[in-house]
């Protein structure tokens, strides 16, 4: 499937967002470790590890290596540091998989109340709102995500999708530009940004 077709449907963007935020299987984590040459020091804090990974992501030009780095960042984000919150997130995932959306919202609401600085609680809830067609609430949660972590590429992808759906292509373009400042090796995002740029240029001619 071409990069163009991957990124031109709203639900495909949702899949991208889910891919970036859901926990990785152990084999994916192992692969991500193999492709990264700069290993974190044991004494690093979580923030230092994430900052170091973002620095690597920004200068990495190989798409496969960059994807491994992005996966490692997602793994760092997924751990809330609280056993209770992590359990609520697992329950929310299970409920989403079983289409028990009301229960999933209950769990995610509890997460955001218990740990309002936990970025993935807001991001998961934004993704669920988007999946159910409530873009206003999704955008509200995306804004919370980006207030906590302006480099959250999954949230930026979700924002770009919502802007495109609402025919605010100039704002969608800005979201993709921000995304690529953070994750420049993502070829699919490059394709999407080029498509929107061409569309805007055609509308002006």
The SSE string, one letter per element, is HHHHHHHHHHHH
- Uncertain stretches of 5 or more adjacent residues: 1-40
**Helical proportion?**
over 70%
- Outline: globular
Radius of gyration equals 17 Å
SS content category = mainly alpha
* Average pLDDT metric: 84
- Distinct helical segment count: 12
Number of strands: 0
Task: State the end-to-end distance.
Answer: 31 Å
Largest sheet: none
Into which percentage range does the β-strand content fall?
under 5%
Overview of the structural elements:
The protein has 205 residues and is mostly helical. It has helices at residues 3-7, 10-21, 26-35, 46-59, 63-78, 83-97, 101-114, 119-131, 135-148, 153-165, 169-182, 187-204. The relative contact order is 0.13. Residues 1-40 have low confidence and may be disordered.
């Amino acid at each position: 499937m071409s990069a163009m077709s991957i990124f031109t449907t709203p639900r495909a963007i949702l899949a991208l967002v889910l891919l970036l935020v859901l926990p990785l299987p152990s084999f994916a984590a192992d692969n991500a470790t193999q492709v990264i040459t700069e290993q974190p020091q044991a004494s690093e804090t979580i923030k230092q590890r994430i900052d170091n990974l973002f620095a690597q992501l920004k200068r990495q030009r190989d798409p496969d290596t960059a994807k491994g780095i992005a996966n490692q960042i997602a793994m760092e984000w997924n751990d809330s540091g609280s056993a209770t919150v992590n359990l609520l997130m697992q329950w929310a995932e299970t409920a989403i998989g079983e289409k028990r959306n009301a229960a999933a919202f209950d769990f995610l609401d509890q997460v955001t109340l218990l740990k309002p600085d936990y970025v993935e609680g807001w991001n998961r809830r934004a993704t669920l709102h988007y999946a159910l067609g409530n873009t206003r609430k999704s955008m509200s949660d995306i804004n919370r995500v980006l207030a906590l972590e302006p480099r959250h590429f999954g949230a930026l992808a979700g924002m770009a999708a919502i802007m495109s759906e609402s025919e605010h292509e100039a704002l969608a373009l800005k979201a993709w530009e921000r995304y690529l400042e953070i994750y420049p090796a993502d070829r699919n995002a490059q394709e999407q940004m080029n498509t929107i740029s061409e569309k805007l240029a055609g509308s002006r001619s």
